[in-house]
Amino acid sequence: MLWSTFGRQGYATLIAASESDSIHGPWLQLPTPLFAEDGGHAMIFRAFDGTPMLVLHHPNQSPNERALIFELEEVDDASGETLTII
Asked: pTM for the complete prediction?
């Protein structure tokens, strides 16, 4: 699950993973924000070629918000991270 909150560098997008693989959780907050530089309300989609992409608004200051689009990479490492922006 992606969610947004305020962090040290402004608005941030974080990942929580269901430990039961169910919507009912329990949910584990992953330690590293997916995006921590004043952007949020993220959504994941796939490009026409199947590449996973992330879109969010940045900065979190009206009327200056603009869509940022990033390519995502799925990773499997010891920290439990599952996605990274490339």
From this structure: 0.82
